Task: inverse folding
């Protein structure tokens, strides 16, 4: 079933795009992270231009985050106070990212930058996640009984001025820290089309020291609003959002997420983290390989 993508300016098999959305949705349901950081690379591998893939993936993440926010909100799992600060930073980051996106696109380097960012970030996250999962597995095999250290925010966070009390997260820290986190995530969302959950969740846990029971819900709350803004900015500035592509991805991701949630109930968390780390590293290596290989066409003609 061929479908024409008006912004990407090419025809694709609609069933393949839905299947890609289902795969990322399934991974989202299994591993508890947004699928945006895998959607964009998979679309690029399929032949979608990186600029269109990044912008359209952000649109898909927006739609996929809505139900998650409502579910966690019912269980008191969202800290709206610190979430609002992160969203404010994300809005500023999205505007900065839009400027960088436009500049790099005018220089003809945006595709290369997107690929390099994915290689660096996915390689780093995959390595850290895999090391943590292997440590837990080996510790269990050796029947380690060491007590886990109490989670606290990073010492650099404690040195920042103007502290606020975030009751639901159990924090007494400066709002500057979550503001900077939102700024970084907003820029990455604009440039890469990711929701930022694979960066935001570890940062909330190990840098801000937030309570684990509100981390996932607050992350989804931020992802929802940041990707919503990024989609609007892309639509009005870069004009790279392909609504047909985003719609096909969303259909697949909603279905895949339901399947992934059921699969997650039968597997151990450390096994899931190790599997996700292997997937992330495989994608990073594939993108690194693509950066070093001479393309079939060494030039392109872009209509003005």
Result:
């Amino acid at each position: 079933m061929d479908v024409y993508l008006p912004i990407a300016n090419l025809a694709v098999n609609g069933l393949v795009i839905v299947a890609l959305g289902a795969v990322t949705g399934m991974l989202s349901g299994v591993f508890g992270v947004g699928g945006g950081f895998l959607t964009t690379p998979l679309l690029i591998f399929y032949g979608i231009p990186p600029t269109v893939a990044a912008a359209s993936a952000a649109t898909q993440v927006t739609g996929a985050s809505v139900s998650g926010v409502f579910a966690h909100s019912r269980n008191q799992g969202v800290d709206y106070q610190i979430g609002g600060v992160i969203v404010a930073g994300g809005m500023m980051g999205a505007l900065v990212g839009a400027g960088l996106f436009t500049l790099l696109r005018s220089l003809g380097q945006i595709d290369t930058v997107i690929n390099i960012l994915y290689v660096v970030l996915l390689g780093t996250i995959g390595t850290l996640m895999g090391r943590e999962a292997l440590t837990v597995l080996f510790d269990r095999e050796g029947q380690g009984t060491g007590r886990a250290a109490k989670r606290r925010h990073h010492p650099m966070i404690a040195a920042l001025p103007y502290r606020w009390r975030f009751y639901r997260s159990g924090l007494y820290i400066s709002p500057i820290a979550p503001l900077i986190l939102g700024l970084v995530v907003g820029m990455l969302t604009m440039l890469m089309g990711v929701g930022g959950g694979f960066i935001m969740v570890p940062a909330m846990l190990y840098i801000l020291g937030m309570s684990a029971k509100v981390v996932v819900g607050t992350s989804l709350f931020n992802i929802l609003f940041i990707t919503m803004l990024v989609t609007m900015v892309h639509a009005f500035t870069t004009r790279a959002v392909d609504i047909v592509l985003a719609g096909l991805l969303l259909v697949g991701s909603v279905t895949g997420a339901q399947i992934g949630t059921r699969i997650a109930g039968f597997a151990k968390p450390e096994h899931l983290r190790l599997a996700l780390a292997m997937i992330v590293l495989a994608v990073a290596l594939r993108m690194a390989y693509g950066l070093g290989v001479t393309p079939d066409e060494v030039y392109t003609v872009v209509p003005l």
Notes: The chain has one domain: 2-143+151-292. The longest strand covers residues 2-5. The first helix runs from residue 14 to 31. Residues 2-143+151-292 form one domain.
